[in-house]
Amino acid sequence: MAADEANATDARAAPIAPLPDYRDVNMPWWQELWRRHAHITTPLRARGLPCDIEFGLSAYIVRVSLPDDSYLIISPPQEPSSDRPPGDPEGWIATREHPDDQTLFEVLYDSAPSDAPGARRRSEARHGGSAQPLIEAIDLRLAQLGLLPHPVLPHESPHVHPAQPTPMPPSRDTPGAPDRGPTYVYGDALRNLTDRLNAAESHADAAALLHQILEPTDGLLAQLGEFFEAAGEKAKEAEEDDGFDLSYDLADAAAEIRSLGEVLHVAEDRMRALTPLAPAPRLPSTPARAPSLPPRALPSAPPRHTR
After folding, report:
1. Whether pTM exceeds 0.90
2. 44 within 8 A of 149, measured Cβ to Cβ
């Protein structure tokens, strides 16, 4: 019985770590900083790790609290300071430290470029400011240390359990599949997600589905932006005037999609924080009524006069 309960608990979606809770969180400048670092904080919060944004020596950093009271510092190069905007550095440095144990200092990841003579070039330097290799390195090390509360598989939502994947519609080539003209596999998949949203029984379930769309690295909007950007590059290959014009239009579309993701970056958290709706009261059953009288027959039309 206890094992069954444990398995049921594991099967349930793991909660995402909450947002920081202090006055600055409601300030526009802080929300802008949070948005710019969402591609770092969102995957880590999905693993149950609380994150915050602080100012380091010369740039903003992400501070990640770990279960053993140690913490991670994820930062761009601090010396010399960078002219790049927050959240988009030349590279990332992730270290693990402890407030009460000054001997604990471990570099988990370092993709920052170094011009120092004789400096050893780390293998991750080739990744530059990319977030995905950084998150993977943190996953690996924290799993080794037993400090990863909720491991998340690549491309897996932190709320939708892998035992309940979104079913894909059958291909036209599938035996028994109805022939209904062209197959729009990706449109059908999104329609299925919309149906699940309509049937969601809680705001938490709705937020989990929003996560599929708004996650800043693997979500639908992020990938849709990549798609239109790739389509623009493909149009350029024609080396025709219309190809270049089309590439500009597609690049604008990619930018608008990414802008939409930035505008809605906290929609998932806002949805999850909504108060659950109380169930609607059931109406009393309708009392039996006497059958209504049949309608009166309409009078027949008067005879038409003839000459």
Report:
1. no
2. no
